[in-house]
């Protein structure tokens, strides 16, 4: 058998290839446009707020809580698979070599979130905290050190407790991170020392407890399966993931929608498509998510042109993804057994998506009814959505 470092490199290569395969469908042009305008609008409003922020604003506590939440969730990525519970069992005494690589990978892939979040807070911290620029950047190093210890602590806690009571470990580490960062950013270095040293001792104690204990393969394999499943479900909103099957839910409270497809032979496919949209989690939550994001941004973005562009981009995404989801299905569905013409199936999906675009536009318009030109946002969403449908028909 190859050594464990080779096993890890093989797993990492396969994992990276799988991510790249679907990421190119996720970060497409319209997503990039939305992100650029979101960052621009958010940065503009953030800078305007910094000009009026009060000196007593609890920025240190806010940073501690936000980074505490990000650091608290430090699930290790081991890339283990089901056969490993059998084939790697004879090498259990040497598995530290494998887990060292896994924990290093878990840390390096998670630091970007910590860095971005902390850097975004630096302008606020310069305004309301007594620390110099050098000490503020030292705070980033402290946050990264806390993230490193949290990943090792969570791995050891899951190892020792066989996956039980993980929330206890996370709450404890959350408190330590908030104590460490909040006190440091307020210039109270005794709190920094207490929090940091306590966290370090906690990590060391957990690591000592797992020595010579059997490794809980089943728990960590389940973690990996769930982590990849979450990624595939997210990727499925942008492209078809062949081996993924969406969950189905009854949603009895939405039965009233079926009145839009009255009983009759001509409405067979329309009724079936409505049921598929309402009961399929992937389709239903896709529309809910995009509608919620569009309404939230419209309500809080004060720059009119930016609001229009974001609304148009999200309407385009809604029309494109729902039209594809309801018409291009690679998996077998029971409605394929019905003797309904293909043109009628496509027309049913098109009419349903058209209605969903209009409802989405109404909700987004109502979300910022007090802002100027609020009605234009809805018009833009309807025009962009219907135009996208027309282009897809060709």
Question: Which key phrases capture this entry?
Answer:
394 residues, mainly alpha
Can you tell me about this structure?
The radius of gyration is 25 Å and the shape is flat. The chain has helices spanning 4-26, 29-50, 59-72, 84-87, 96-128, 133-161, 166-185, 189-209, 217-235, 268-279, 281-300, 304-327, 342-367, 374-393. It contains 14 helices and no strands. The longest helix is centred in the N-terminal third of the chain and has 33 residues, at 96-128. The model has no long low-confidence stretch (mean pLDDT 84). Helices cover 73% and strands 0% of the residues. Helix 2 (29-50) packs antiparallel against helix 12 (304-327), helix 3 (59-72) runs antiparallel to helix 5 (96-128) and helix 7 (166-185) runs antiparallel to helix 8. The chain is mainly α and 394 residues long.
């Amino acid at each position: 058998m190859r050594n464990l470092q080779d096993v890890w490199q093989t797993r990492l290569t396969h994992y990276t290839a799988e991510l790249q395969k679907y990421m190119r469908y996720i970060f497409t042009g319209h997503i990039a446009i939305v992100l650029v305008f979101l960052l621009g609008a958010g940065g503009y409003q953030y800078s305007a707020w910094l000009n009026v922020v009060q000196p007593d604003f609890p920025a240190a506590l806010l940073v501690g809580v936000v980074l505490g939440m990000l650091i608290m969730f430090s699930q290790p990525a081991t890339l283990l698979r089901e056969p490993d519970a059998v084939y790697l069992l004879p090498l259990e005494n040497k598995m530290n070599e494998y887990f060292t690589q896994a924990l290093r990978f878990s840390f390096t892939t998670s630091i970007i979130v910590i860095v971005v979040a902390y850097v975004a807070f630096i302008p606020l911290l310069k305004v309301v905290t007594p620390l110099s620029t050098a000490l503020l950047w030292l705070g980033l190093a402290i946050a990264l050190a806390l993230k490193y210890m949290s990943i090792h602590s969570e791995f050891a806690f899951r190892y020792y407790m066989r996956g039980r009571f993980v929330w206890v470990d996370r709450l404890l580490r959350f408190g330590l991170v908030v104590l460490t960062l909040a006190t440091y950013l307020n210039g109270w270095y005794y709190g920094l020392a207490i929090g940091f040293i306590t966290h370090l001792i906690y990590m060391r104690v957990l690591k000592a407890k797992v020595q010579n204990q059997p490794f809980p393969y089943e728990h960590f394999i389940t973690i990996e399966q769930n982590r990849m499943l979450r990624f595939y479900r997210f990727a499925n909103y942008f492209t078809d993931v062949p081996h993924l099957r969406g969950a189905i839910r009854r949603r009895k409270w939405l039965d009233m929608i079926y009145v839009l497809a009255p009983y009759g032979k001509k409405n067979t496919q329309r009724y079936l498509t409505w049921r598929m949209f309402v009961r399929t989690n992937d389709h239903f939550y896709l529309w809910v998510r995009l509608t919620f994001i569009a309404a939230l941004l419209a309500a809080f973005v004060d720059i009119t042109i930016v609001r229009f562009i974001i609304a148009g981009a999200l309407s385009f995404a809604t029309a494109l993804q729902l039209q594809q989801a309801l018409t291009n299905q690679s998996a077998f569905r029971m409605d394929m057994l019905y003797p309904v013409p293909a043109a009628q199936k496509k027309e049913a999906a098109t009419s349903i998506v058209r209605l969903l675009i209009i409802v989405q536009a109404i909700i987004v318009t109502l979300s910022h009814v007090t802002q100027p030109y609020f009605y234009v946002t809805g018009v833009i969403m309807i025009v962009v959505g219907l135009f996208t449908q027309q282009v897809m028909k060709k």
